[in-house]
Amino acid sequence: TILENNPDSRNLHVQFDDVATSGSEPLTVAYRHLEHAPDKGSYRSGSRAAPAAPASKAPEESRGPLADSHGDFHTRQLVKLQELQSAPELNGKLGRLRKFDINAERWEVDVRQVGVKRLREENLGRPEKPEVPSGLSAEELKARGNDNFKAGELEQAVAFYTAAIELLEEGNPNPVEASEKSYISVIFGNRAQCYINLCREVHGEERHIGKEARGFAMRANMDSARALELDPTNGKAAYRRGCAVLGMAASASRAKEAIYWLEIALSGRASGGKDGIVLPNAMRNEVSNLLDYAKRRLDACVEAAVPDVEQCRENCRQQ
To answer: Which of 59-63, 175-179, 266-270 has the lowest mean pLDDT?
Structure first.
């Protein structure tokens, strides 16, 4: 039974029916740890993998005080896993640092496409700067960016999409695809999605939007705006702009802006809907869910109806 829903912190206060497993007291559980139960309207804890070798077990609970920084590392930092003997398949994977367990001397690392692992600092390294080979066509750059995105290599995907955009907009001679605005719009939209994923990754389950997460959201907003400028029928770009503005600030004005763009996206159809907007049917549920969230955020926001007089005077002096 859901006792309380906290959309800002993305968690639920839940009383589970299985008292033998979860205990008699309600638990606070993050959205990502829940899945829909067979009975409509209820939830159960996320499915658990079968027992595996010790190297692939779920991370143990923190056993000591947690710190945001230690040595050369700090929370939200991007790292590359290295020199893992018991789980060599994780070497080369990228992840974000969460907290440092002082007693265990291990970092909680949210590894992309894997989950949270508890690792020692000698198994953490700095990722290399993305590089793009020369001589590739726009289509080859786009295809490599797509492959990197699917592999969770977001920084490398951004590098390939950026190279493709530069080639299409500034190449001499211009590639044949440069005359197709809808083609360029797709690449801007793809890069925007990379920035959205990076924003979500950096933000995690924090209540307040930090500077780095906001920066990624702003880049996503600019890219999706450019994608819509090139192709106003790009429903994916409208959806991504709604995602982006929600990541820029937890304010009523941003929530209203997100609702505007998400409603535009939802007006689209796979074959072209109102105003010719195209949105794949597979995305409709995702867009609808985010629209509902944006409306809840708007309801939860409280903005001053009357501006502060002293602040207005100060602004006048600054002008």
So the answer is: 59-63
Rounded Cα gap, residues 86 and 80, in angstroms: 16
Token readout for 164 is 């493709």
Please check whether residue 226 is in contact with residue 278, taking contact to mean a CB–CB distance below 8 angstroms. no
Answer whether 234's CB lies under 8 Å from 187's CB: no
Q: Which of 153-167, 190-204, 289-303 has the lowest mean pLDDT?
A: 289-303
**DSSP secondary structure string, 250-264?**
SSHHHHHHHHHHHHH
How far apart are alpha carbons 168 and 262 in whole angstroms?
29
Pairing assessment for the beta strands 34-36 and 73-74 based on DSSP bridges = unpaired
Q: What is the pTM of this model?
A: 0.72
One-character DSSP codes across 42-61: -EEEPP-PPP--GGGSPPPP
Share of the chain above pLDDT 90, in %: 53
Distances (CA, A) of 213 to 7, 114, 166: 17, 21, 25
